[in-house]
Amino acid sequence: MPANDLNGRRGDFAAAPALSGIRVLDFTRFVSGPYTTMLMADAGADVVKVEPIGGEATRFLDPKIETPDGEASGYFHRFNRSKRSLCVDFRSTEGRDLLLRMIPQFDVIVENFRPGVLDALGLGYDVVSEIAPGLIYCSISGFGQTAGPHRSDPAFAILAEVSAGVVGRTNRLDEPPVRLSAPIGDLYPAAMAVAGVSMALFRRERTGEGAHIDVAMFDALVSLNENAITMSATTGREVRPAGRLTYTAPFGIFEAADGYICIAVLGDKVWHRFCEAIGRPELAEASDLDTGTKRAASMDGRLGTALADWLSSRTRQQAVDELLAGGVPAGPVSTPFDIIDSPQAVARELIWDVPSYTGAVVRTPGSPIRIEPGGFATPGRVPAAGEHTRELLESIAGLDDAEIDRLERAGVIASWSPSRQESTV
């Protein structure tokens, strides 16, 4: 039920996940949108994923995972736990009208089509806000809904990243630009979308008003790149990419005997601790190392040599343990396998076993947001395409079996039956 109907029932949700009772209609594909709605589902929201007939495109993308029923898309399974699937041809008049009939029963819509696509289909904010004035409508796009020469450009994470200047910040000057392996161009805008929806829901509690949230991947990543942009704009000098910082050291990734570690020396207090930890206290008193800038310059000289000599006789863990014992921030550079069963990940219950409609269990990172009391919703399974079509049309649209059967025969909707272990899509 829409959150406006929850007034007077707050005690029912006192120990429930934070978004319990919030219903979300999910018109998203690929990564940024599905990750947004998955985080909301983790927090207890009832997320209904609207898919075209045949299922969302990422159901068919590599890499594949082995399941009891054959192969399935690992790509799709990463972002679609705990959702219900509704397959409807929303590009058809009858499919659109069916969704418009259901929308007043939802609190939130999230979509990540190119600007104008849902408007052209009669499902844009101007239309749905007339029939559901308290609705929170969140649009995620590459360059924003309202203005700018790139408004209509297609956007994937890497395009947003290069446009916002975050690619090539970590490589050395003599190297071509290097992209981070994690799709920050999708995941960071998704986090901003969750924040925006949460703000709008909070405001609606006080005013009863809905909202249109406009999250541009470009905007989010420009804000993420605040250091380089602020310093360039303020000083008039371009902050050029570099493999290490120029105003403090040691600060970065360094090689030990069996792999790499991170060391973060920032400020004179930590610098003195670092010198003690590596058995070189005299470095702390050296006049040519008495500022962060001088220390950064010396990483190609005696400071870099002293650190390399010390690390060469220690494993990753030995070096990290000694530095931490001395009060110096440090940590091993981890691989995915290092993380999965690490004591920290286990203690935080960070890796979840998520069931799938295929019968497989997918091990994947859980929600990074912890709210107590209430915690998380129990991870729900990744749905089959159209798995919940019939129940949703009955419970939300109020259709009977005969009308649902007619719509399915007409190709307006599609459903899936677990008992048949096959889809009608």
Question: Which tags fit this structure?
Answer:
16 strands, disordered C terminus, 3-stranded antiparallel beta sheet, Rossmann fold, 425 residues, 7-stranded mixed beta sheet, 17 helices, alpha/beta, CoA-transferase_III_domain, CoA-Trfase_III_dom_1_sf, 2 domains, formyl-coa transferase, domain 3
**Coarse structural class:** alpha/beta
DSSP strand tally: 16
Largest sheet data: 7 strands, mixed
Reported CATH architecture of the largest domain:
3-Layer(aba) Sandwich
CATH class of the largest domain: Alpha Beta
Return the CATH topology of the largest domain. Rossmann fold
Q: Could you state the CATH homologous superfamily of the largest domain?
A: Crotonobetainyl-coa:carnitine coa-transferase, domain 1
Low-pLDDT stretches are: 420-425
Count up the domains: 2
Estimated share of beta-strand residues = 15-25%
Shape: elongated
Helicity, in percent? 25-40%
Mean pLDDT over the full residue set: 93
Tally of individual helices: 17
N- to C-terminal separation? 29 Å
Computed over alpha carbons, the radius of gyration is 26 Å
How would you characterize the overall build of this protein?
This protein has 425 residues and is α/β, with parallel strands linked by helices. Helix content is 35%, strand content 17%. The chain folds into two domains: 296 residues, Crotonobetainyl-coa:carnitine coa-transferase, domain 1 (Rossmann fold, 3-Layer(aba) Sandwich); 87 residues, 2-Layer Sandwich (formyl-coa transferase, domain 3), CATH 3.30.1540. The strands form five sheets. The protein has a seven-stranded mixed beta sheet, sandwiched between helices. Strands 9-10-11 form a three-stranded antiparallel beta sheet, with helices on one face. Helix 1 packs across helix 7 and helix 7 crosses helix 8. The longest helix is centred in the middle third of the chain and has 24 residues.
